[in-house]
Amino acid sequence: MRITLSENLSYCVGVKWTLTLVEKLLAHNPGKSFYMLGEIVHNEHVINNLKSKGLRIIYDMDQMENGGTVIIQSHGAPKATLEKLKNRNIDFIDATCPMVGLIHKKISELEEEGYFPVIIGKKGHDEVTGIAGQVDEALIVGSVKEVSPDQFSGKQKVGVVVQSTFIRAEALAILEKIRALVPEIKFVDTICRPTTERQEEIKNIAGKFDCILIVGSKTSANTRHLYTLAGGTRSRVYYVDNPESVRALPLGEDAAVFIASGASTPMDLIERVVSILTDWK
Questions:
Q1: How far apart are CA 23 and CA 74, in angstroms?
Q2: End-to-end CA separation in angstroms for the chain
Q3: Which of the residues 65, 127, 176, 184 is marked catalytic?
Q4: Catalytic annotation on 146?
Q5: What is the pLDDT along the chain (281 residues), one digit of tens a residue?
Q6: What's the predicted TM-score (pTM) here?
Q7: In what order do the strands lie in the sheet with 256-261?
């Protein structure tokens, strides 16, 4: 079996930064209660590991005990959430991914400049909710089909940002449809570089491998996007959220296999997949 690894495996810089911060907080403050508002990243293996070290996942501040510290997840949070924490005198640490923090800054600037804010992204995703929560009002569109003239009726200036892990080609298609509906548009490309590199790599391997394994959680948007893109490469594509599931895949001993991963996939899971394939019989 010929195994080729992606050049962009495991954590992106932003996820690594956030996880390092949280790991240090847990290790250096024994006995202190830390709460994460939502899941720090969308990977159950990472979440379970942090829970075993004392991190508690909550979705409402009322679930906290007195004296605890809240950690803002890597996807960020609306301004109203931070204000609520401040008003209730709850200690908090902002572990928002720096790239996501930049999107917060950009959409706020667009609003200040008089542009109506539009977010290209998946409605309900934690990151998109946090971005939308930086401005008074924002329109969220996740596909070309969701763009309609009624949404932009009377809007003269529109400012557009993008969810950091969105598929670039889809974002540009949505942007072009919006351009046809408004007199003035200002677009800020906020798809992060690691996301772009992973997506481009998948497109560039079209036809070169028998199968592609996308290692990561199905709750991870960037991992799902890689899986979607891999579906257009003429290779068989498999989603691997549990390394042991690889054993059941219909792979021949001479198969050429490409392994890629989402930006929140731990390296030990990828290494386990490689180990299983290396011993393939």
A1: 13
A2: 10
A3: 127
A4: no
A5: 899 999 999 988 888 888 898 899 999 988 889 998 888 778 888 889 999 999 998 888 888 877 789 999 888 999 999 999 999 999 999 989 889 999 999 999 999 999 999 999 999 999 999 999 999 999 999 999 999 999 999 999 999 999 998 989 999 999 999 999 999 999 999 998 888 899 899 888 878 899 999 999 988 888 988 998 888 878 899 999 999 999 999 988 889 999 999 888 999 999 999 999 998 85
A6: 0.85
A7: 2-5, 256-261, 211-215, 236-240
